[in-house]
Amino acid sequence: MTRRLRQLLLAWILLMVLLAIEFGASFIPLGRSARPLVLIPAILMVAAVGTLFMQIGREIAVVRLFAAAGLLWLSILLGLGSLDPLTRTDYHVQAANPK
Amino acid sequence: MADASYLPHEFQYSSARHQAETAIAGMWLFLATEMLFFGALFLSWIYSRHWNQAGFDAGAQQTNLTIGTVNTAILLASSFVYSAGLAFIEIGNKRRLIQCCAVAWMLGFAFLILKFGVEWHGDFHKHLFPGSHFAITGPLSGGAQLFFIFYFVGTALHGLHMIGGLILVGWIILRARRDEFSPGYYTPVAAVGLYWSFVDVVWIVLYPLIYLVGRGP
Known about the structure:
Chain A is mainly α.
């Protein structure tokens, strides 16, 4: 088995372990607002696929720039898009009584 | 990429290596646009769940966790096997490339059968498609229907990308059988591998959003 194949096999085992952790973490009692924390293993899995299967670190500079630009614009999209729902305060308004 | 400087190339490139690097850069640029395409879908999840947490989670609890988890493992295996095929052609083993691509194709096909042939079929049977006969009634119905709109749109878009990937992997198998790849030229194998792994990445994000976050004890 070549070094690259051994690396791929280890990457796959790592991904399966992270999947098991993610699956198990979903059964941890967390508040409804804290439940998105179970996404942390998924973020690690995305990083593992990007670096070990897609080998972004081995590519030329312009490729890394494209990948970084995609992530930057994605974070702007999700960050700015989430600002309103995550920071807006809802004030209770009493419904007017019909006369 | 292996050194391909001795291979023929189009006139606008300084070398075959330059041509290969440009093709891979083009695929990454396409994938950057795909990140934003799916980013809008993920934003809709954040927005919809934030305003309808109880109903959204009530919808998520109706999904088939077993099929979702098995499908995630299938896609991870498929990405691994395809990457192994790429590693094999880098050292000139064409037979192993074809075998790996065939296994990756079959795993991808199994994903689609489980997702649309079994899971979606069950969802329709349980009246989980949003509409007048939706299974969940009462105050949580609106949020649950929003969840299932996200679920059906998200899985359909991902499924379309999977079908595109299966066509591309099949194309690689055909070209490999015609002996078109060598350790000096395998750019299409690498480019399709990037797309195939990206489709896997999208599912890695969709899996917890659909099956795990809303399924608290």
